[in-house]
Write a sequence for this structure.
């Protein structure tokens, strides 16, 4: 059976949904821990890592790495293949799960 559903193979949409999810969880977690800075994911992510909040210290680089791969060429990463989209999904959802565990969200 051939499945021609319009949402299949739309890897850019997958990548586009992961970034705001990660940004929102980082921001809300940071705010729960006292962050009062700009409502921007990168500032909140840096604060969380610098203050050693939410995630264990050794997870800081992983969190920043997940943020970096969520938008390597700005908020619109362009064309992605299936492997790249799966990799981003696994990394991003793993980080978000850990953030939710430790941030009390």
């Amino acid at each position: 059976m051939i499945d021609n559903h319009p949402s299949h193979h739309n890897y850019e949409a997958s990548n586009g949904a992961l970034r705001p999810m990660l940004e929102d969880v980082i921001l809300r977690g940071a705010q729960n821990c006292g962050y009062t800075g700009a409502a921007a994911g990168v500032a909140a992510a840096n604060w969380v890592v610098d203050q050693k909040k939410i995630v264990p210290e050794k997870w800081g680089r992983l969190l920043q790495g997940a943020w970096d791969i969520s938008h390597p060429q700005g908020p619109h990463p362009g064309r992605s293949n299936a492997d790249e989209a799966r990799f981003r999904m696994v990394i991003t959802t793993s980080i978000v799960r850990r953030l939710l565990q430790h941030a009390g969200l």
